Each structure stands twice: as structure tokens, then as C-alpha cells.
Amino acid sequence: MTEMLTRPMSGASARIPFADCWITESAQRAAQRVLTSGWTTTGPETLAFEHEFSAAVGADEGVAVSSCTAAIELSLRALHLPSGAAVLTTANTFCGVVHAIVHAGLRPVLVDVDPLTGMPDETTTRHAAITCTPAAMVVLHWAGDPCDVPALAAAAGVPLNRVVVDAAHALGTRWQQRAVGAGTTVCFSFYATKNLPIGEGGMITTDDPEVAEWLRSARLHGMTADAWRRYLPGGSFRYDVAEAGLKANLTDIQAAIGRRQLRELGRWQERRTEIAARYDAELAGIPGIDLPHRPDPAVGAHSWHLYPVRVGHGVAATRDGVARRLAAQDIGTSVHFIPIHRLSYFHRIVSIPPGGLPGADALFEHELSLPIYPRLTDDEVDRVCDALVDAVASAREEKETK
Ligand SMILES: *Cc1c(COP(=O)(O)O)cnc(C)c1O
Fold first, then answer.
1. Tens digit of pLDDT for each residue in 302-322?
2. In angstroms, what is the span from residue 306 Cα to ligand 1's centroid?
């Protein structure tokens, strides 16, 4: 993990890591100012970041939290569902999402995906819902490719205000001419590899003022909403705790970084889009490499958090073999994700629809995420493409000569 986050000096044969955590100098200076200000935890920078971030994604309110995982758990707790109620989630997601469901006292039920999009469709959603009558669902715009949230909610029979949107990949994703961000609860991540890196952090955006108020208190021990001010000049020690809360607030150090990073986001998103187009152009039509699904431009826009190809279809190359060959050329890649039911803890506790999860299993066999981030140069993209084409071809030859 640490090695993938360090960015070497550029050069013809420099390492190309899978991900890059770029904290701008302006963000570093802003963090320094908070460190010397005498107030480092949740405070004025966090409030300003909440306003600026929610405005950027077209939501009424933002509640800053410690991670997207905490954002999802709090969003589920905000629904006040009976303990053990079923919650649908895609099988092709990050383990933190399923932990959030478990820690909210709810029961995860996995939904299979279409291996072309990496996401559940209406058929797989309906199939999973029939077995469990879900009370809520978590929907993921996987890789940053928008999915049709109202259609999936309808297929599940779940009202829209009980859909928690996992937007960890979807900062910059657009659907029906709007940024992903409006809704009951939409959960973002500022983890080191995400489109707006802080290092750690998360945000819940919402259009519901009552939900926002509940979340503001629940993220900080369930204390009355502005208890964070109790150590500021003029603050009072008095507060109430009306409900069980989490310790999941964001610090002003992180918020100061996030505010400065947000100013770069437009440029960063343009660069991600350029890189995706370059990959598309260079990899199109190569046997054994399938390009990522993209939205119809009339309907939505991709955030290009990931550039997920599928390798090895119709040829002898395996995904792991290709990834190993790229690693030998100092090119980092990743896989999104190991399906939840293939992780031993979740295998024991999750519900799986009858017939299993063949779409998620099929995708996992072939999926490979290539490097994509604003500081990746055109030359580096070309090197990745050349190495990938070679890796697929030589894996085929090796298999054929056996
Ligand atoms: C990164 C990620 C998360 C969790 O984000 P954290 O901020 O690290 O908690 C949740 N869902 C998906 C799909 C992710 O990729």
C-alpha cells in the first residue's frame, strides 16, 4: 500500500504506480495554517468545506465525516430500520460497504452484476429482492460510470429515500445533466486514491434538512449538533446525548486540505477524461482486451475514477498473468473488486441469491484496473498500453507453445 502511493521522478523507465495521492502545495500550506491556529479538530474549516463541497455537487447540505465507510454506516443508521432488516448491495464492491451494513445492525444481501458494466441491473436486483424484501439498498456508481438509481430502487421495491448512494467513485459523475450528489444520502470518499484525495475523509450530501441535522449529531457521539463548539471562546460545556452516535467527525486539518484540493477538481477531471480517451484509442480492437463500459453521453458522464479493462476474453491470457507481466515492467495495476462472497468472513454471513453470483465471478476473472490520475503523462499512458498489449500477446504465445 505505501509503495503504491509514492510517486517516483518521471523518466523513460520510471515506475508507474497504480495510484497517486497528489496534495497540492496550496493544500499543504492550508494544513500548516490550521496546525498553528490552535484549533485542529472539527471547526470553521470543516463548515466551509461542507458548504463548498455540497455546492460543487449540487446538494443542499454536506456533513463531513471521517470516511466513506462511516458515511454509509451513518446514512443507514439515519433510516432507523428494525435490527436485522435486509439491505441490498452489489457483490462487486469494497468490503467497507458491507461492514457498514453489518455495524448498522442490518443484514447484507448481495446483488449480482452485469459483467459488462460491473454493476447490478434491474433483473439481478429484482432477483435478489424477491428472496428478502429489502428495507434499504446501497447503490454504487462503479468506477465512476453512472447507474440508474431510480430504476434500481424500483426493481428492488425500495423507496428512493431509503437508497444510500455509494459515491466513492462518483465525484465528477453526472446523470441526467446533474452531478451525483443530490438525494437523501450520497456518500463520498477522500481516501488517498480517490478523485479528491485528502488522505482520509468522507462527506454525506443530502437534500433533507432533518437527515442532515441527525447526521451532524450522530457523527460526533450523538451530542447536540454544535457541541463541537464547546471548547471555543464563549462555548458552553452543556450538551445532551439523545441517541447512540459514532466518533466519525472530520478534522479541520483534513477540511483545509479538501477545500484547496476542490479548487483543482475541474482540471483534474478534464485530465482523467483525456487519459480515458487515450486508453480507448490505443486499446480499441485488440484481441483479449475489452474496454470499459461508458455511459451514453446524452444521459450521463463518467468520473473516470477507475479505468477497468477486462483481459483474456477469447484468448489464452489470464488476468493474473497479465498483471504479473505489467508488474515486472514496473507498472502497477489493481482489481476492483474481489467479490464480497469470496472473502471468508462475508462468505459466512451474507445472503446470496439462488443461483449464486455468476456475473460477479465472471467479471472478477478478467477485471484489471489500469493507472489513471491527473499527473499520469501521455507517455506513461502509452507505456502502459504497449506493455498491456505485449503482456496479453505473450501470455497467449506461452500458452500456445505449451
Ligand atoms: C474507497 C471506497 C469506499 C470506502 O471509502 P473510505 O473513505 O476509505 O471509507 C467505499 N466504497 C467504495 C466503492 C470504495 O471504493
1. 999 999 999 988 888 899 999
2. 13
With contact defined as beta carbons under 8 Å apart, do 35 and 168 qualify? no
User: Is-above-0.70 flag for pTM?
Assistant: yes
Cβ–ligand 1 distance for 69 under 6 Å, the answer yes
Q: Has 402 been annotated as catalytic?
A: no
Q: How far is CA 104 from CA 69, 81, 93, 218, in A?
A: 11, 9, 18, 12
Express each pLDDT in 252-300 by its tens digit: 999 999 999 999 999 999 999 999 999 999 999 999 999 999 999 999 9
Q: Out of 94, 173, 196, give the residue to mutate to test ligand 1, the one with the largest number of ligand atoms within 8 Å of its CB.
A: 94
HEC assignment per residue over the chain: CCHHHCCCCCCCCCCECCCCCCCCHHHHHHHHHHHHHCCCCCCHHHHHHHHHHHHHCCCCEEEEECCHHHHHHHHHHCCCCCCCCEEEEECCCCHHHHHHHHHCCCEEEEECCECCCCECCHHHHHHHHHCCCCCEEEEECHHHCCCCHHHHHHHHCCCHHHEEEECCCCCCCEECCEEECECCEEEEECECCCCCCCECCEEEEECCHHHHHHHHHHCECCECCCHHHHHCCCCCCCCCECCCCCECCCCHHHHHHHHHHHCCHHHHHHHHHHHHHHHHHHHCCCCCEECCCCCCCCCEECCCCCEEEEECCCCCCCHHHHHHHHHHCCECCECCCCCHHHCHHHHHHCECCCCCCHHHHHHHHHEEEECCCCCCCHHHHHHHHHHHHHHHHHHHHHHHHC
